[in-house]
Amino acid sequence: MRNRTLFNHLCYAGLALVLAVGATFTLAGQAKAAAGDQPGEGVTVRPAVATWTSAVPVSWAFIELLEELGYNVASPTSLSNPVAYLAISEGDIDYWPNGWFPLHNAQLPDNFAEVGEMFDPLCTACGIQGYLADAQTVSKHGMSGIMDIVENEELRALFDHTGDGRAELYGCPPGWGCHEGINAMLDKFELRDYINHVDAGYSANFAEVVTRIEGGESTLYYTWGPSAWLLALTPGEEVMWVNAPGIVEDEAERAEGVEGAASDPIDMGFIAADIQVTANSEFLANNPAAAELFRHVRLPLEWISEVDARIGEEDLTDREVRPLVREWIDANRDQVDEWLAAARAAAN
User: How far apart are the C-alpha atoms of 165 and 163, rounded to whole Å?
Assistant: First the structure.
C-alpha cells in the first residue's frame, strides 16, 4: 500500500510538472503572439502635423493605425513645412505625413537623403493647386489667365484693391510651399510691378476673398485641394481656375478636364503634388512595422476633402476630427487590416 501511495504521489507530481511546463509554454506563446500583434509596444512615436486643416484627418489616420500596432503616439506637433523637415533630419520628430512633392523639394535640408526617407504617395496627384478669379470678371472680360491682368491695364485696375496700380493676389503665408511658388513666379516673369502677393495667414486671406467676391469685386487668389476652400467657393460657379505661367515649364503643370477652368487644357502654374510621408531614417530602422505601414497606407482625395469641409462647417477641433477618422477606418476595415498585417509581418 505504501508503494502504491508513493507511486500515486510520483504520478501526481509528474502530472503537475507537465501542466506547469505546458502552462509556461502556453504563456510564452501568448506573449510571443501578443508581441507580434503589438510590435510597437513600449515605443513612443513623435509625429508632426502641417498647419493646414486638410492635414488633420491624414495625421489622425496614421496615429490610429500606429496605435493599433501598439505604439504610444504623442500628440502631433504643428509645424510649418521647412521646420518639420529640419526636425525630422535632426531626429526631433519621427515622421510627418503631410509632404507635398515636388512642391516641397526646395524646403528639404541638404542632407535629408542621408537622414530621412520619403515614401511612395499616400494620395497620388491629390494636391491640385493654382489660381482662381471670380467668375463674373472672367466671363465679362474674357479673362483666361494671370497674364491678362499684366497686359491689360483696365483689367488690372479691377483687381487693384489698394490703389497702388498693382492687382492683389491673395496667396500664402511665409513657410508654406505655395508662398515660395507664388514668389518664384512673380520673380521669374518679372510680375511684381503688376501683381502684389498678399501673404497673410491663409484663413484671413480667404475670408477677405469671400467678402470681396460676395460684394461683387474682382478678386484673384490662390487655393488648393483637397480642402474645404474648394467647397466654400466652387470652381465653375462663384469662381474659375485661370491660367498661370509655370515656374518649371513642365508639361505636368498643364491639366485637362479641370472642372471650372477658364480653358481646357489649363496651365495651373503648379505641378499636381503627391501627398507623401517623410520620416527619420533611424526611427524607421528601429521600427520596421511603422516603416511598412508608411509604405502601404493610401487615403482617398474625396474623403480628405469631405472631412476638411466638415472641419470648416462644424468648426471642429483637431480632437473632434479623430472620431471621423475612426469611422473611415471601420468602414474600410478589410483594407486596413491588410496594411496592419503587412506591418506586423515586417516586424517578425
Answer: 6
Note whether 96 and 51 are within 8 A (CB): no
Can you tell me the mean pLDDT for 45-63?
96
Number of C-beta neighbours around residue 94 at 10 A: 25
How deeply is 92 buried, as exposed, middle or buried, from its count of CB atoms within 10 A (0-12, 13-18, 19+)? Answer: middle
Residue with cell 518679372: 190
Answer yes or no: are the C-beta atoms of 99 and 277 closer than 8 Å.
yes
Burial classification of residue 140, based on how many CB atoms lie within 10 Å of its CB (0-12 exposed, 13-18 middle, 19 or more buried)? exposed
C-alpha cell at 42: 513600449
Q: What is the C-alpha to C-alpha distance for residues 345 and 194, in angstroms, rounded to an integer?
A: 58
Give dist(CA 84, CA 95) in Å, integer: 9
R_g of the chain, CA atoms, integer Å: 27
pLDDT in tens, 40-52: 999 999 999 999 8
Write down the pTM of the prediction.
0.70
All structural domains of the chain: 44-118+273-347 (3.40.190.10), 126-267 (3.40.190.100)
Instruction: Report how far residue 38's alpha carbon sits from residue 212's, in angstroms, rounded to the nearest whole number.
Output: 53
Q: Which helix (H) or strand (E) holds 78?
A: strand 77-78
Residue pointed to by grid coordinates 508608411: 294
pLDDT tens-digit series, residues 230-259? 878 989 999 999 999 988 766 778 888 788
**What backbone torsions phi and psi does residue 302 show, to the nearest 5 degrees?**
-60, -45
Q: What H or E segment, with its residue span, contains residue 276? A: strand 273-280
- DSSP letter assigned to residue 160: -
Distance CA 262, CA 250 (A): 20
Residue type, 230: L
> How, if at all, do strands 116-118 and 123-134 pair?
unpaired
CA–CA gap between residue 103 and residue 81 (Å, rounded): 11
Cα–Cα distance, 244 to 171 (Å, whole number): 14
